[in-house]
UniProtKB/TrEMBL annotation:
Keyword Lipoprotein in record: no
Transmembrane segments: none
The name this protein goes by in its record: Sigma-54-dependent Fis family transcriptional regulator
Alphabetized SUPFAM superfamilies for the sequence: Homeodomain-like (SSF46689), P-loop containing nucleoside triphosphate hydrolases (SSF52540), PYP-like sensor domain (PAS domain) (SSF55785)
GO molecular function, one term: ATP binding
One Gene Ontology biological process: regulation of DNA-templated transcription
Organism taxonomic ancestry: Bacteria, Pseudomonadati, Pseudomonadota, Gammaproteobacteria, Pseudomonadales
Residue ranges annotated for the Sigma-54 factor interaction domain, each copy included: 160-389
InterPro entries: AAA+_ATPase, AAA_lid_NorR, Homeodomain-like_sf, HTH_Fis, P-loop_NTPase, PAS, PAS-like_dom_sf, Sigma_54_int
Length: 471
């Protein structure tokens, strides 16, 4: 075959040859069509016309083939001169297996192409077709994931799950924010989806092809924050480091900078951030020159900035600069109506990594509604994950399975005694104990992570590292 279609043998596929083979192909196929060099239809048989839902074949003669069969690749065949021997083409919800061949003049010039529908009933090919569909879906998903990874985001607005009026209002504001360039301030307790939303706004904005750079202010040691934000000029410290180290502002240039836990920013840095936002210029550490940056800022905090302003811990001018569009994200306890859809979405995600059915009964969802969720959706995910891995058959979560893993602080039925729980790896038990201790500290501090870290006797950055592993 390859030789027949090689450049040297172009003449082998002349109009004469095609014409000689044509009656046989036409009789064996479910439809046939021919186009000229410009991919305009020159001939179509009655069976193909029927298949396409065309009453009179004469009405399509002379029309560009794409106008009649939008998914066809015949223009590509006349353009490249290469046959497409086997292809599955979608047309009006039908899948047709087609073959397309170019044909040449005696002088070796492309004259046009013919196509035959080999099968219009894919029943006998079901295994092949479902494999093709799966591969097609996998490819589309992989492409989407790659595109998101390239721009630094994983989430779009569809990933912010919720249909309650409160969740819909959040999405409405997020869409508004995506359409404008203004700074946005996301307010919400830990685990309510501030990062999900920040990424979603970026993904839906005009900056989508530019970087999304996130920095968690609370997780960076105070003495490194300035360098982290504004970068370091060559040799700024000891002279040993001769390279420029770019800060988050430079990395986010043209795109979006997400300032998570902006309420944890020390006052001197607040002044520098304000200047950067006002002037659109930054000064890398140890440099005397300013660099222009074009960055859209989305800030987030779980703290009450107005109280912080009153106590002199946050600059009011920076607050007004950041808070042009405010999006309060309600805690999960205030939108329990979303528990069902959230469980479905989270279980689907968890299931991906495990060989489990991973479903929850209505009674299971009701059991979740009795808890006050200080760790919000992050905690909900952890509870579902724990319930699934601890469940007897590991697949369907009913009320009992939920009660077994809900933390005691909620005033629910107490979790079953340790003795009733199966023996598991020590590392897993320790990790669960750690997760519970963190949750408890977050409950006690009502989500204030600086206080939670103090209660746990660890630094804020260590707490963030652990929370990152939990999410
Ligand atoms: N509305 C939502 N729909 C689906 N998943 C969500 C939603 N909100 C949060 N999540 C999930 O919960 C986890 C925590 O979300 P995220 O990190 O965005 O919260 P956060 O408010 O930024 O938390 P923190 O303040 O602790 O950084 C993630 O796994 C995220 O996928």
């Amino acid at each position: 075959m390859t030789k027949l279609f090689s450049d040297k043998n172009k003449k082998g596929l002349t109009r004469d040859l095609i014409e000689a083979l044509f009656p046989m192909f036409e009789a064996a196929s479910a439809g046939a069509i021919a186009v000229d060099r410009q991919a305009h239809i020159t001939w179509i048989n009655v069976s193909y016309s029927h298949l396409l839902g065309i009453g009179d074949p004469a009405t399509v003669i002379g029309k560009p083939v794409r106008q009649v069969i939008p998914q066809t690749r015949m223009p590509e065949v006349v353009e490249t001169g290469k046959p497409l021997l086997l292809d599955i083409m979608e047309h009006n919800d039908q899948q047709l297996v087609v073959t397309r061949l170019p044909f040449y003049s005696e002088q070796g010039e492309i004259e046009g192409a013919v196509a035959f529908v080999l099968y219009d009933d894919l029943q006998p090919l079901t295994p092949l077709v479902s494999k093709y569909r799966r591969l097609h879906q996998d490819l589309a998903a992989a492409r989407k994931a790659l595109a998101r990874k390239a721009r630094g985001t994983r989430y779009s607005l569809g990933d912010f799950v919720g249909a309650s009026p409160a969740a819909l209002e959040v999405k409405r504001r997020a869409r508004l924010a995506a359409g404008r360039e203004m700074p946005v301030l996301l307010l919400g307790e830990t685990g309510t989806g501030k990062e999900v939303l920040a990424q979603a706004i970026h993904s839906a904005s005009a900056r989508v092809d530019k970087p999304f750079v996130g920095v968690n202010v609370a997780a960076v040691p105070e003495n490194l924050l300035e360098a982290e934000f504004f970068g370091v000029a060559p040799g700024a410290y000891t002279g040993a480091d001769r390279r420029i180290r770019e800060g988050k502002f430079q990395l986010a240039n043209g795109g979006t900078l997400f300032l998570d836990e902006v309420g944890d920013m020390p006052l001197p840095l607040q002044a520098k951030l304000l200047r950067a936002l006002q002037e659109g210029e930054i000064e890398p550490l140890g440099s005397n020159t300013v660099v222009s940056v074009d960055v859209r800022v989305i800030a987030a905090t779980s703290r009450n900035l107005e109280v912080m302003i009153a106590e002199g811990e946050f600059r009011s001018d920076l607050y007004y600069r950041l808070n042009v569009l405010e999006i309060p994200i309600p805690p999960l306890r205030d939108r329990l109506a979303d528990l069902g859809v959230l469980c479905e979405a989270l279980l689907e995600d968890i299931r991906d990594g495990l060989e489990l059915r991973g479903e929850i009964t209505d009674a299971g969802v009701s059991a979740l509604g009795g808890y006050d969720w200080p760790g919000n959706i992050r905690e909900l995910r952890n509870v579902l994950e724990r319930a699934l891995t601890m469940g007897e058959d590991g697949s369907v979560l009913d009320a009992d399975a939920i009660f077994k893993v809900l933390p005691r602080s909620s005033g629910n039925r107490p979790a079953s005694s340790l003795m009733a729980q199966p023996v598991q790896l020590l590392s897993r038990t320790l990790a669960e104990a750690e997760a519970q201790a963190i949750e408890k500290a977050l409950v006690a501090s009502r989500g204030n992570r600086t206080r939670a870290a103090k209660l746990l006797g660890i630094s804020r950055s260590v707490l963030y590292e652990k929370l990152g592993r939990l999410s």
